[in-house]
Amino acid sequence: MFETLREKIVDILIKAEEPLSVSQIASLLGLSSREERTIYTALTHIAKSVRRKSKGKLQLVMIPPVCKKCGYVFKHLDKPRRPSKCPRCKSERIEEPKFKIIGENI
Question: Which stretches of the chain drop beneath a pLDDT of 70?
């Protein structure tokens, strides 16, 4: 049986020991770095569908991106993404957000 990209990402994020960045997810799926935007788009949909399908028992959580220079934490992102630069110090050295699916009985 063939799995869709979203199903593969959900499977990876449920089985992962630690939260994973989008670049780590892409490498596990054999995708290039150019396709990371596709994964970010998929994560937006996965967040909704995982909670709905599990009746609230599972949820996608995100460890927000952090500026490597000044430590600014991007807490108020409207959707999963990697910011281009820090609003505080203007550095472009931003740690990627990390994702994990957590819930009951995992």
Answer: 1, 104-106
42-57: b or e for each residue (b if 16 or more CB lie within 10 Å)? bbeebbeebbeeeeee
The encoded tokens of residue 6 equal 């979203």
Q: Where are the domains of the chain?
A: 5-103
CB neighbours of residue 34 within 10 Å: 8
Query: 5-103 is classed in which CATH architecture?
Result: Orthogonal Bundle (1.10)
Per-residue tokens: 13: 């994020």
DSSP result, 75-91: ---SSS---SS-TTT--
Single-letter residue type at 43: L
Which pLDDT value is given to residue 38? 93
Let me know if 83 is exposed, middle or buried by CB neighbors in 10 A (0-12, 13-18, 19+): middle
Tokens of 75: 């807490």
Residue 1, pLDDT score = 59
Q: Are 37 and 46 in contact (CB under 8 A)?
A: no
